[in-house]
Amino acid sequence: MRADARRNYDLILAAAEAEIAKSGADASLEKIARDAGVGSATLHRHFPTRQSLLEAVFHDRVEALCAEARRLATSADHGQALVDWLCDLAVHGATTRGLAESLLHTSADSSCEVMLREAGNDLMRLAQEAGAVREGVDVDDLLTLVTAVSLATRDAGDAARLAALALEGVRPR
Q1: What gap in Å lies between CA 144 and CA 134, rounded to an integer?
Q2: Can you tell me the mean pLDDT for 107-121?
Q3: Pick from 71-80, 103-112, 145-154, 158-167: least confident
Q4: How far is CA 92 from the centre of its chain?
Q5: What is the DSSP letter of 106?
Q6: Taking a C-beta distance cutoff of 8 angstroms, is the pair 51, 105 a contact?
Q7: Which residues lie below 8 Å from residue 8, measured CB to CB, with a gap of 6+?
């Protein structure tokens, strides 16, 4: 990438992070371009869709959540590891403006969705092998559940408490 193109990309990303933190996933693309000091065409050249911009903004956060899932996979209690990770995901979604909304409206093959699904699948498999998750529950169900909790609250404590409460239903009877 040329130096000026890289600079524009970085300016757009910084402006997007700030505006999405303030306004959420529906932040004005025109305002983001203005704040970055570039034209709308330049923004769309780097990020052809709103979703591609959202993925770039949230990629590092999602990557950190996936690293946490890998760390939790080494714990002795696989059922609790899955619950802990999902509660962490709910808290991040609730407190990181725009994250839950972007995950809710993303396509199944988006990079962030794929990373979260793979990380969740690994924890889910371990929890199911340990008998800590009942049959018929899949990771997509759980990701949808914690995203819904994230959308219902903006407070970390409430998100963690509600996610933990909801996840009690996935344990074997």
Answers
A1: 17
A2: 85
A3: 103-112
A4: 7
A5: S
A6: yes
A7: 36, 38, 42, 46
Q: What is the pLDDT of residues 55-93, one digit of tens each?
A: 999 999 999 999 999 999 999 999 999 999 999 999 998
CATH fold match for the domains 1-48 and 50-170: no
Fold of 1-48: Arc Repressor Mutant, subunit A (1.10.10)
Instruction: Say if residue 108's pLDDT is above 80.
Output: no
Fold (CATH) for 50-170: Tetracycline Repressor; domain 2 (1.10.357)
Higher pLDDT, 110 or 122: 122
The pTM of the full predicted model, rounded to 2 decimals, is 0.85
CA distance 164 to 52: 31
Calpha distance 172→64 (Å, rounded): 29
Q: How far apart are the first and last CA of the chain?
A: 55
Q: What mean pLDDT is predicted for residues 49-57?
A: 91
Structural domain boundaries of the chain?
1-48, 50-170
- Two tokens at 6? 């890289």
CB 132 within 8 A of CB 173: no
